């Protein structure tokens, strides 16, 4: 059986990458593990896992290219485009690549067959392996390109897991479309938060998404000790499982800043992450009615 | 003297959780308490994880609906299940209806709103339904008017909502001779960040020492440069990892960017967040509050001395 686990948070900087990388490092001892860093705007997992990249794939949106010989300036393409990526200006149709979603609608709707689609690079996808054997893939959005979601979609489509693989997916922060694309189709989401008003507020945003999408989840409380008991009260009241608690500790903060995985800073976490994985399996089995 | 337009300061970080919002709130306090006061408005441009209202004692004065993009919906009476829609959808959003056999259904979560299916449907069974994607608000705070929003969870953060609240702040600022607009930006470098940056006079990057912090600092700086926005850096939690702080100074120097100050790790910041106020309200003498006071002065000096120029 394959298992896909995404690590998300709502609020930024709560420790998603810390949890994702150490979960991968703990599971690789006994499993085949893939790590997918979908935070394409600010990808950081490679700084902790140091993969050797062996493959670079351009991340593209297919944008329209109009053949001026065939184009009759009928304006049908401008009409069908929902994103204002095409405009009729004088005697040409202009294309605005940064507004194009690559949906293909203009191509299909051109009565003259005057539109072909050409790849417009918006970033890169890099694949490699870490020393410990983790199959590593991440995407990087090119600076000044606005759209992260198409890279995430391409990144996830590339990943055809072989049987028995555990895929750990590092999600972007926030609770908008790029996070939805990241968690689509996963078996479980680990929500990493901190016990502060910001952490709780943004966690609730994520819960809204996961309830809508009917994806199972549990919470990791990071930096326990800096906030208050509001988060715990909320989780208890809602019956949301707590998967792990990580105390606020300057040693951990320093180690993470230096690029050390949590399981290297404190090797006791190996067992804790393995236990967490067991807990996640139990939650999934229980909700599937297998226990 | 002709009336000057308000200067716009955008606070960014690349990496999440470096302290943008706590700093924005502290700047709100500084704008009314730092000796030379600036009439300032505030914008929370992090619309899908909007937290600034939690620390500005905001009282909502106006609430407006935000209608964003449209989504495709199939009329089950007209659908023949021919599959033309599915063949053009590049978002894997079209599935067989779970209850009605022979009919298709569009997953609203996956639909990108491109309308390709609408044009592909031979039965005219698909139409685009406008979606309310959130609310935006004008609020009153003890520090000045505050423009913020709430994007419904999972909706497209296209930057449109960010642009909308910035425009409203701008219009109100013109009417009321406001000198400064402080924009609390989102993490990352994508669409909402670009919208948050557009038209601003100065970017302040809140950097965090460490490898991830440095990596994301470089990405957000590159983005600000692309849009030719003058930029300064401040370093938060500077004492947690002094080597990283040193590296940020070195990097800033090679880039010709000024570091306007550093904030030590200080529990007064989360403690004031718990009380829902800027740090200076409860801990005016804390090390972080003192550091922020200096950063505020450096930043506004820079802002009011800079004329927009190529960088």
Spell out the blueprint of helices and strands:
The complex is a heterodimer of chains A (291) and B (311).
Chain A (H helix, E strand, L loop, with lengths): L2 E6 L7 H12 L4 E6 L7 H5 L2 E15 L9 H5 L5 E4 L2 E4 L9 H5 L5 E15 L5 E7 L7 H10 L6 E6 L6 H7 L4 E6 L3 H17 L2 E9 L5 H9 L3 E6 L2 H8 L4 H4 L3 H19 L4
Parallel strand pairs in A: 1-8, 1-9, 2-7, 2-8, 9-10, 10-11
Antiparallel strand pairs in A: 3-6, 4-5, 6-7
Helix pairs in contact in A: 1-11, 5-6
Chain B lengths: L6 E6 L7 H14 L6 E5 L14 E16 L9 H5 L5 E3 L7 E3 L9 H5 L5 E16 L2 E8 L8 H16 L4 E5 L6 H7 L4 E6 L3 H16 L4 E6 L5 H14 L2 E6 L4 H8 L3 H4 L4 H19 L6
Parallel strand pairs in B: 1-8, 1-9, 2-7, 2-8, 9-10, 10-11
Antiparallel strand pairs in B: 3-6, 4-5, 6-7
Helix pairs in contact in B: 1-10
Please summarize the sheet with the most strands of chain B: 9 strands, mixed
Which parts of chain B are unreliable, with pLDDT below 50 for 5 consecutive residues or more? 307-311
Number of domains of chain B: 2
Strand content of chain B: 25-35%
Low-confidence sequence ranges of chain A: none
Query: What does the radius of gyration of chain A come to?
Result: 22 Å
What is the CATH superfamily of the largest domain in chain B?
P-loop containing nucleotide triphosphate hydrolases
What share of the residues of chain B lie within helices?
25-40%
The CA-CA distance between the termini of chain A, in Å, is 17 Å
Q: Enter the CATH topology name of the largest domain in chain A.
A: Rossmann fold
Q: Show the largest interface.
A: A-B, 60 and 69 residues
| Strand percent estimate of chain A | 25-35%
Q: What's the total helix number of chain A?
A: 11
What's the CATH superfamily of the largest domain in chain A, by name? P-loop containing nucleotide triphosphate hydrolases
**Global mean pLDDT of chain B:** 94
The general outline of chain A is elongated
